[in-house]
Structure formats: structure tokens, C-alpha cells
Amino acid sequence: MIITQKYINDLAYKIVGCAIEVHKNLGPGLLESVYEKCLILELMKEGLNVKSQVPIDIDYKGEILHSALRVDIIVNDLIIVELKAVEAMIPLFTSQMFTYLKLTNKPKGLLINFNCENITKQLVPIVTVEFSKLQKD
Fold first, then answer.
1. Is the distance from CB of 22 to CB of 38 less than 8 angstroms?
2. pTM to 2 decimals?
3. For residue 126, which of 26, 53, 64, 109 is within the disulfide window of CB 3.0 to 4.6 Å?
4. How does the average pLDDT of the chain come out, rounded?
């Protein structure tokens, strides 16, 4: 299978749909870890390949720091999903996602805040240069 921008965007759409389903059933106000477990279940029901709390090695000046950080979820080895359960999204979260994407060479990331009334209004999709190199369809 050829990975295209359309494939990744369709996958992101599915992920957001699963997040909406979780939010619809649980509502705001819970811990991030609760949303993560439920979202993983929804993603797996969709037949997606889901890894959670994925350790990421960092190459710092030629030294490999094993498992120096963890990302919440990686779907189909293409999209990083970072979950939040916060009152407000802040620019630091976006910067964090850009760093995660850079370190992993993934083409797209989704920041999803469950502590809100409408997930889609606080959703932050982020694409990288890797995404722009992909064929459109």
C-alpha cells in the first residue's frame, strides 16, 4: 500500500471520530488516562494498529538516550495522538507535538483535549514536512 496524504487524512478523520465517541459517552472532567484507555478501545474496534505510551529514543549529540520520552498513542505507525484533559490548550502543547513529530519522523499529529464541550473546536492537527512530501491521493 502506498501511503498518501489522503490516506493519512482519512486515518486522522477516523481517529477523531473515535475520540468524539469516547467524549460523547464519558463527557469532560476525567483524567487523561481514562480517556486514553477508552480511545485505545475505540481505535482497536476500528481495526487500527494502536500502540500506547510508546517510548521514544532521542539522539542527543550522538548519544542515544533510550526511552527518554513517551508519546500517548501512535496509530498505524503514522499518526501521533497526544491527549489532554486540561482547561485550556496552550502553545506549549503544539510545540511539544512538533518536537515529537520531528524526533519520530511521523507525518501527522493530533492534539485532542477531552476537557471541553466540543472536541473538534479544541482539536489541533499538525502536519510535518514528511507529510508534504507524500503524494496527495
1. yes
2. 0.95
3. 109
4. 95
Residue 92 C-alpha cell reads as 506549549
Does residue 33 sit in helix, strand or coil? helix
Q: What are the cell numbers at 55?
A: 517510548
Q: Judge whether 137 lies within some domain.
A: no
Domain count along the chain: 1
Q: DSSP assignment of 42-98, as one string? A: HHHHTT--EEEEEEEEEEETTEEEEEEEEEEEEETTTEEEEEE--SS--HHHHHHHH
Closest CA to 93 of 119, 111, 70: 111
Amino acid residing at 18: C
Report yes or no on 109 lying in a domain: yes
pLDDT digit string, tens, across residues 69-120: 899 999 999 999 999 999 999 999 999 999 999 999 999 999 999 999 999 9
Residue range(s) defining the domain that contains residue 39: 5-132
